[in-house]
Structure formats: C-alpha cells, structure tokens
Amino acid sequence: MQKENTIINPCQPYVELGVDDVSRLDMPKLGISHFYEFFLGNKLLHELKAVPDGSIDLLFNIGKSRVTTFISGTVFGVKKWELGDVGLCFGVRFQPGQGILPRELSMDMLVNDDLEIDGNLFGKNLTERIAMATDIKSRSMIFMEAYRDFVYGRPDLSDKEMINEYLVNRITRANGHISINELQEETNYSACYLRRVFKNYNSISPKQFARYIRFQTLLDKLNTNNTRYDELALDCGYFDEAHMMKEFKSYAGLTLEQYRKMQRRI
C-alpha cells in the first residue's frame, strides 16, 4: 500500500502558465498529487507541451458527445502533449514514481508517450460519472472513490515493490541529490540490482528519475522566490550555475531567463 505523503508537487509550467483559468485541487492521497481542470480552446489544440516530472498524468477530455481519456508517463525532454479535442480537460497528476496501473497497462507503454485508453479501466462507468459532475471538486471525489477501491483491491507489495517504493521516496525526499552508491549503502543491495528493480517498475533509471526530481525542485523554487542563479544551483544540487542552465534548457525547451519572463507576463 502506498504511503500518503506529499513529497513534491510536480509542475507542468506550459499548462499552469499558458492556459487561462486553470483550476487546481490538491489532494495528496493514494499517491496522487493534485487534480486540475481547464477548457481547451481551438487556439490551444495540440499546442501545449509537457516537461519531465517523473509522474503519470491521467487526462479526461470531456466533449459534448464523448469523453476521451489519455494517460501519459514522464517525458524525457520538452515534448508536445496530446490533449484531445476541444472541450473540458480534467486531469489527475500523480506524485513522481507513484500511481498504480490497471493490468492492461505498463510503464513501458507510457513513458515519453500519450496513450488513449478506456477511462473505465480505473472504475466502473468512471468516465460517464466524471462527465456528469459539475465541478472539479465533484469530479475529484468521484475519481478518488473509484481509485481507492482499485488500489485497496490490489495484493500486498512484493519485496521488489517495497524496494522500488523505498528508492522512489528516498530519491524524491533528497530532491534528486543522492547517488546510487548512497542508495546501495542504505539498502545493502548492489547498484546493479537497484537499477534493474527501479527500471522494471518505472521504465527509466534511478539517475534519470533523480534528474527529473531535481528539475522539478528547481521549478518550484523559481515559482516561489527570486534567489540568485548561483545560489539556486547549489541549493538544488547542481554542480554549478552552468550545469543548471544547460539542464533547464534541455528539459524546459527555453532558458531560465525566458522562463522567468514568461512568469512575469502572467
């Protein structure tokens, strides 16, 4: 059973800064970070982008005649995000490395991709009930009820699943600033075995996951303070400012200064 701890709130800045009237509801339970909702107009169709966050997103695109459901894993770098047709988008964002999938899905299918699925895989008549709800709070409660039944119906964690859970939580709590050698010492398992277990469940390496967490930590700090870049780099675990700048552009698709200008325009 997954712990209900909020460690990090994964951010998708192109949604949060690029869409008008985004609603958000934090609900840190069962590995979920938060719910979000916005209307997708013609001008936004296929124009939003995703950045690495180590997380799963489940998106219900609620149109007039049908509900289309997409599920996405973390991207490797800035990438176009499949949002479906024009309509209301209701999303579920899980904590990094968290989220239990139906047996029909695997992380190999989701990483760096968007997959259209039957939303009812997560609960009976779930898409219809979500579409009938009138606001984000109601939709969130409907999903939580269905997902809680889904989660509690799963068997207890295996030894390997407990190792993976420890690695995910440890890397996240360290804000990505921890080495495989340190994890090896803490667990008494070889680095090779830890990498294999982690990749089996997450389809990325512990090192990749740590980098995404470090990047998300940087995004959070950029949203909350105006610390100098050299201080930010040290605080987030980068070697230096140049290292931080290079990785940020690789993951966000723009420079730090361009990102801050985008923030100031909102």
Automatic annotation (TrEMBL):
Lineage: Bacteria, Bacillati, Bacillota, Clostridia, Lachnospirales
UniProt-recorded name of the protein: AraC family transcriptional regulator
Database matches in InterPro entries: AraC_XylS_family_regulators (IPR050204), Homeodomain-like_sf (IPR009057), HTH_AraC (IPR018060)
Domain of life where this protein originates: Bacteria
Species name: Agathobacter rectalis
UniProt key word Transcription regulation: yes
Molecular-function GO terms, alphabetical: DNA-binding transcription factor activity; sequence-specific DNA binding
UniProt entry keywords in alphabetical sequence: DNA-binding, Transcription, Transcription regulation
Entry-linked Pfam families: HTH_18
